[in-house]
Write a structure and sequence with these properties.
four-stranded parallel β-sheet, 4 strands, 36% helix, 13% strand
Length: 187
């Protein structure tokens, strides 16, 4: 099938899904089972992110609280990613083991972060954040409140800031992916 037809079919399907949103408010609210001793583990998979990682870690530094641990998984970086992460005293750096057959890099780095921080019987919330993301001053608090209210899984669609003109082309697949989630309104 011609790629243009596939793209148009995707846009039509996304537009239809957008018009039939599955609202989070339809999910039953429930309280989290996490107690006062529960921890939140932020896992940041990072490959060659030494240039942008300080921005995210700086954002996280302003949101630290008891029970919060930050783990950067260095995924075979060729730059100073691990050293940059270690320069932030609250960060634990874990080296991702060699990639096994059948795994993709980022998902393996996320799994390596989970494996490296797991303890038997622990009660924690896992938060996965890309290394090139910026967080608002109360981002973690807002996501934690939503998780506490709803339980389950909370996934956030970030605001996308582009720095170069060609990066603006990424808005099209971004909009289609948001349309496919069923959130928002056509208008």
């Amino acid at each position: 099938m011609h790629p243009v037809l596939v793209g148009l079919a995707g846009l039509v399907a996304g537009w239809w899904l957008w018009g039939h949103p599955r609202r989070l408010s339809d999910a039953p609210a429930r309280r989290s089972q996490a107690g006062p001793g529960a921890t939140t583990t932020i896992i940041i998979p990072a490959r060659d992110e030494g240039r942008v990682l300080p921005l995210l870690l700086g954002d996280l530094a302003g949101q630290l609280r008891p029970g919060l641990e930050v783990v950067v998984v260095d995924d075979a970086s060729c730059d100073d990613t691990a050293a940059v992460a270690r320069s932030f005293g609250f960060v634990r750096v874990v080296a991702a083991p060699p990639l096994p057959e059948g795994w993709a890099g980022k998902s393996w780095a996320c799994q390596a972060g989970v494996d490296a921080t797991a303890t038997s019987g622990d009660d924690r919330t896992l938060v996965f954040v890309d290394a090139d993301v910026r967080l608002g001053p109360s981002a973690l608090e807002a996501v934690a409140a939503e998780l506490e209210r709803r339980g389950g899984l909370v996934s956030v669609q970030p605001h996308h800031t582009t720095e170069r003109p060609y990066e603006q082309l990424s808005v099209v697949p971004g909009i289609v992916s948001i349309m496919g989630t069923g959130v928002g309104r056509r208008t």
